[in-house]
Amino acid sequence: MATNQGNIGLLLANNESPCTVNNFASLADQGFFNDTKCHRLTTSSTLAVLQRGDPKGDGTGGPGYEFANEYPTDQYPPNDPQAQQPVLYPRGTLAMANAGPNTNGSQFFLVYQDSELPPQYTVFGTIQADGLATLDKIAKVGVASGGEDGSRVAQVIIKSLLLV
After folding, report:
1. What are phi and psi of 156, to 5 degrees?
2. What CATH number has the domain bearing residue 71?
3. pLDDT for res 150
């Protein structure tokens, strides 16, 4: 992934989340992510993510369809209370953002510090060392409002997302 702040290498996990990886790869091949901005940076002590993949750039957009959650959500039986308990999404995790169960589309987040979330966000890859260095640089600038969640002070644009 080439951004105006540097490259972010990703390694996709087709073995754990094949539908999600295929969706992501298809959108990338179509140029869906090209010239889109990252609309959300979170810098709290329990959640440290950069969210992107919204063609509208405001957190409300997607590809026009939704699909089911995969790993780690699919590791829990339906209605299991453990599925509501936070688990560790370690630094370097690539996961889908969603608006509830089975509402995945195009928005995804990059975890740049260990974060705890319920296991309701499909993990579909990892961020390589170059990407973590770029994410650290992006996060260091901070949130525009001065708070812990919102748009970044300096805009981050995905110039292109190519599969190799």
Report:
1. -115, 120
2. 2.40.100.10
3. 64
* CA max distance for the chain: 42
List, in sequence order, every residue forming a beta bridge with 40; answer none if it has no partner: 51
Is the per-residue pLDDT at 78 higher than 90? no
φ and ψ of 146, to 5 deg: 85, -5
How many other CB atoms sit within 10 Å of the CB of residue 130? Answer: 12
Residue 44 to residue 63: CA distance in whole angstroms: 29
How many structural domains is the chain composed of? 1
Which pLDDT value is given to residue 121? 97
pLDDT in tens, 17-30: 999 999 999 999 99
pLDDT at 80 over 90: yes
pLDDT value at position 152? 61
- List strand residue ranges (DSSP E) for the chain, in order: 2-3, 6-7, 10-12, 36-37, 40-43, 48-52, 87-89, 93-96, 108-111, 115-117, 123-127, 149-150, 157-160
Domain interval for residue 17 = 2-160
